[in-house]
Amino acid sequence: MSWILYAAVFGAFFLTHSLPVRPRSKRWLVKRLGPRGFTLSYSILSLAMLAWLIVAAANAPYVALWDQATWQRHVIFIGMFAVSLLVALSIGRPNPFSFGGARNERFDPKKPGLIRWTRHPLLLALTLWSALHILPNGDVAHVILFGVFALFGLFGMKIVDRRKQRLLGDTQWQSLRGLVAAAPFFTRHGSWLEILLRLTAGIFVFALLLVLHPIVLGVSPLP
């Protein structure tokens, strides 16, 4: 695969992933597919585009930058366990500050949970996933791949902040931020049962990734 084709796949990936932040396009699709249909279709499309991009990186011209070391696998093993738990604890939770929030009207700024630490837990998870995967993949194509994702996650937080502030209005935005900042660092959002179920799901997903990684990508993630 040439660098030009690799760049084209990158462009297609970001083009499709711009749909959720384009209100007109999203409304048009939701009207025709329905909310659940849009979510399901977009999820399938996102996974397909991510798989295509990873395959494109693996088949791009190989230019080595550094060799893989054993310690890198230990770091990514521990880091990805944390990422799995972070996603499990935050996905589908009320979060008026970021994308992916569900039932945002139920958000309690005095008990924000993870939102006390970061307004964008899913984008933080994306950034950590990307940065961790740079370590054992020391070739130009993969450094570009995961480096762009890491930057996308970091800058995405600022972009979503601006968009949400515009949608909520400056007064409500500042009020919510102030209440969250004043909340204790450790607060429980939801019941202990829900938290336990989410942690269990995160552990299950992490174990599933360990099993599927060598099957799908041909590389074992184990140290």
Quick structural overview:
This protein is mainly α and 223 residues long. It has 8 helices and no strands. The protein folds into 2 domains: 61 residues; 152 residues, no CATH class.
In words, what does this structure look like?
This protein is an all-alpha fold. It has two domains: about 1-60; about 65-215, no CATH class. The protein is about 70% helix and about 0% strand. The model has no long low-confidence stretch (mean pLDDT about 85).
* Helicity level: 55-70%
Query: How many discrete structural domains?
Result: 2
Assess the beta-strand content as a share of residues.
Answer: under 5%
Number of helices: 8
Rounded mean pLDDT is 86
Amino- and carboxy-terminal Cα gap: 30 Å
Order of helices and strands, N to C? HHHHHHHH
Low-confidence stretches: none
Number of DSSP E strands: 0
Overall radius of gyration:
19 Å
Q: Shape from CA axes?
A: globular
Task: Give me the secondary-structure topology.
Layout: H1 3-16, H2 23-33, H3 35-59, H4 70-90, H5 121-134, H6 140-168, H7 170-182, H8 192-216
Q: What structural keywords apply?
A:
mainly alpha
